[in-house]
Amino acid sequence: MINLSQIATEQANPATKHIDELSTLDMLKTINAEDKKVACAIEPALPIIGKVVDIIAEKIKNGGRLFYIGAGTSGRLGILDAVECPPTFGTSPELVIGIIAGGTPAIFRAVEGAEDSTNLSQGDLNEYCFNDKDVLVGIAASGRTPYTLSALKYARELGATSVSLTCSPNSPMEESAEYAIVVQPGPEVITGSTRLKAGTAQKMVLNMLSTGTMIKLGKVYGHLMVDVKASNKKLTERATRIVMEVTDCNRETAIEALNNANGKAKLAIFHIISGETIENSQRLLDEADGYIGRAIKNINKK
User: Fold this and answer.
1) What does pTM read for this prediction?
2) Which of the residues 10, 115, 174, 188 is marked catalytic?
3) Catalytic residue, candidates 21, 43, 58, 84
């Protein structure tokens, strides 16, 4: 028997007790007021989030990968964050991976019972040859989902880094993970509907984990996504604008450099700044581990 009275996300919210009696505008104002509490709830967890970002970045530098795993809304949020990394940061689709209980069908429709399994997650991780070089972030608002909890335990058995992301304190997942991120946004607008405030909190933390990691990996220069993958017209235009902004060149020069660099904004930028050939520019970037700022400093020292 699950004792819902002990789970923070299952508590009643006094502020929304009569939300069904409000006008549409007042109803939305109430929801908005509750949503405003989410960002503030994350602030106390920033130190542990920062520590996890540093660990993920170091693991990736040493050949590891980042995995998100969860059931229902939590699993979908992990997948959402994972699939945005390749177009935004030019990463391989195999670097950040999202796994959901019930597999691909569960992304679109609830797969009943999948989250209660204590056996499925190990097999799901094994499909990706999950190992001790990797980082696993288990996501569950309640911190009690059997599927996700068993995944964290398996990660620890393998010697991989395990991280829990929950919205309820003193949960089994918090106790099982090596690093525990606990965000407490308070009771939901609709009791127990964790796709609301808890889901928003989880999304914000996942944004921090992936974005912070990619910044640490040199995939951002200033505030610009210099490793953006120009895979459609919008992203091609964004890459052009990025090259123009960083190098202060005209549009024609930016387009020519991007064409020579096979659409790689970072390479095009460094090619223009350094005056080196594309081949030498790539070599110098590689020597700087892909950090454009470091590569620029290196050529200025010569």
Assistant:
1) 0.91
2) 115
3) 84
